Automatic annotation (TrEMBL):
<dbReference type="Pfam" id="PF00296">
    <property type="entry name" value="Bac_luciferase"/>
</dbReference>
<keyword id="KW-0560">Oxidoreductase</keyword>
<dbReference type="GO" id="GO:0016491">
    <property type="term" value="F:oxidoreductase activity"/>
</dbReference>
<protein>
    <submittedName>
        <fullName>TIGR03557 family F420-dependent LLM class oxidoreductase</fullName>
        <ecNumber>1.-.-.-</ecNumber>
    </submittedName>
</protein>
<dbReference type="InterPro" id="IPR036661">
    <property type="entry name" value="Luciferase-like_sf"/>
</dbReference>
<dbReference type="InterPro" id="IPR011251">
    <property type="entry name" value="Luciferase-like_dom"/>
</dbReference>
<feature type="domain" description="Luciferase-like">
    <location>
        <begin position="8"/>
        <end position="290"/>
    </location>
</feature>
<dbReference type="InterPro" id="IPR019945">
    <property type="entry name" value="F420_G6P_DH-rel"/>
</dbReference>
<dbReference type="InterPro" id="IPR050564">
    <property type="entry name" value="F420-G6PD/mer"/>
</dbReference>
Amino acid sequence: MQIGYKLAAEAFGPAELVRQAVLAEQAGFDFVEISDHYHPWLDNQGHSPFAWTVLGSIAAKTSRIGLATGVTCPTVRYHPAIVAQAAATLALLSDGRFVLGVGSGERLNEHVVGVGFPDAVSTRHEMLREALEIIRLLWSGGYRSYDGKHLRLEDARVFDLPEEPPLIAVAASGAASTRIAAELGDGLFATEDRPEIVRQYREAGGDGPCYAEVPMAWAPDERTAAKAALDTSRWAVTGWKVMSELPNPVNFDAATSTVREEDILEKFACGTDPARYVEVARQFVDAGFDRLVMQNAGPDPDGFIDFYQRKLAGRIAGLKPGGDRS
């Protein structure tokens, strides 16, 4: 079991994200994971810096903690050749501490370059397959070309390659995407605590680590925490089918107008009761995930990191599937 800290790039500026990563390393987290967005989910989150620049600064200012994207779409806003080069460079700068999390993307971030975002999920999956094949091809060295149904590569070479390529964790929510994770990735990434996601990944031959984001919101009292999560993170209760389709923050604002504090309290661990945090984390462990990302939607990141270090670290890291629920 490894425990990560989510760097919410939609909620904080670049310098603050670097500061939180340094603090997370000091607090004993195993890795940090950063969202790779062009837009925030909601306008009132107010931020969305370039994730790769932030990760480079974190690599320079830390020495132990792992780094991961959660997740990058390597098909529309970025060509996979650029992702291959960026990930290789970051792996070198971090001395092998980087994990490349990839997924089929959200319209929210990909439509901005004006070339269209596929409506069909099957097309997005085809593009992701081709992107992963291109990344693997470039990481094998030499000049490479590729002529796919959706993506092309012409006489490209990544000159600076690490001795060992970064692990690739592929975001999945159903059978088709778990097959891609098993066949072309080194691990699985998910945002829901559904056991069938991990089961389908294993049945497809996947044997790598399984990453999942655990929804939390720390504040001195439960209602303050729930209100903060409602204000900035209510999009998280909509589910992937909604999250992947809406084009702009204003659409997420409209789509989540009926979300209540009670809905947040049902999904998130809120407040200061360690037992509730362990309960929510246990759902992901029981579902088969062994890389848990603490995703704090509360208003005080320093308070959450301190709370985690004092009250949660040992209890969550020690969770076992189907373990004692007392």
